[in-house]
Amino acid sequence: MKLIAWTERGREDKGKDAIDIYYVIKHYSKIPAVVDALYEQDYMDAQDNDIMNATAMLLADEVAAIVREKTLTYIKQALLNNDSVLERLKVDITKYTVAGYEEADILIEIIKDRLNGG
User: Fold this and answer.
1) I need a labelling partner for 32 at 20 to 30 A (CA). Which of 11, 39, 49, 111 fits?
2) How many domains are there within the chain?
3) Distance separating the N- and C-terminal Cα atoms of the chain
């Protein structure tokens, strides 16, 4: 749970977690079963065939399905429903990866929306 790790680490260690979060979103769709799910479960249609956005959506749904309610509540309180902390995550992804701010913003907002039940 890189989202939790990112919220709990000191500023000097958050770059690695931001890199890992982006890496997972970027590369998860290279797994054949994931590609199938992206198309068969209409994630690609929902995200206008943008594979990164569809992958972020699928990952968030998978996280929501497997974590305990207490863990999901913590993620919401510590990150997703805290605008200043969420903004720092987007900035860290932009700072430590090849993602531009707009891309980081879209990906994290998709994750936020899905984990908040959207």
Assistant:
1) 111
2) 1
3) 20
